[in-house]
Amino acid sequence: MNVNPCHAIIIWDHRTLCTNSVMSKLEKAIVSIVEVFEEYAGTDDKKRELSNKELMQLIKTQLSSPDFKDKMDQEDIAEALEKIDKNHDGQVNFREFSQCVALLARGYFRKKHGKGKGKDKGDQ
Predict the structure, then answer these.
(1) Phi and psi, residue 14, nearest 5°
(2) Which among 33, 63, 75, 114 is least surrounded, fewest beta carbons within 10 Å?
(3) Which of 31, 90, 87, 33 is nearest to 58 (CA)?
(4) Residues paired with 93 in a beta bridge
(5) What is the tens place of the pLDDT at every residue in 31-60?
(6) Maximum distance among all alpha carbons in the chain?
(7) Closest CA relative to residue 84, chosen from 103, 97, 102
(8) pLDDT average, residue stretch 11-34
């Protein structure tokens, strides 16, 4: 069996991904999430956390498309943003950010498939 070593293992550090392979949609999505976080978290001295100012800038520029907003219930967006700073320290670490992204993805899925909140255990 001839296996490309780039596809044989999961590489967690996006900077070391093999350059001769084509990433899947999910791999590209994961890399994009990490890169967006790093881009906005990198504007002050805390490179691994988003300040409130950085978070507001990220939301303003990355979640502003009318096309995206039309595909989401506003209450799902509000819920995700309300829960983003779980420990209420005024900073959003990557864990908190990724959980917010997951809530947004779940809201998009619900809207796309017409699922009501809590009605279908498969969409929670």
Answers:
(1) -60, -20
(2) 114
(3) 33
(4) 49
(5) 999 999 999 998 877 889 998 889 888 888
(6) 51
(7) 97
(8) 76
Regarding pTM above 0.85, the answer is: no
CB-based contact 101:33 (threshold 8 Å): yes
**pLDDT of residue 110 exceeding 90:** no
Nearest 5 degrees, angle CA 43-CA 49-CA 51?
65
The phi, psi pair for 15, rounded to 5°, reads -75, -15
Count, residues in the chain: 124
Place of tokens 């009605």: 119
Written as six digits, the tokens of 84 are: 């983003």
Does the structure show a pLDDT above 80 at 104?
Answer: yes
Q: How confident is the model at residue 95 (pLDDT cuts 50, 70, 90)?
A: very high
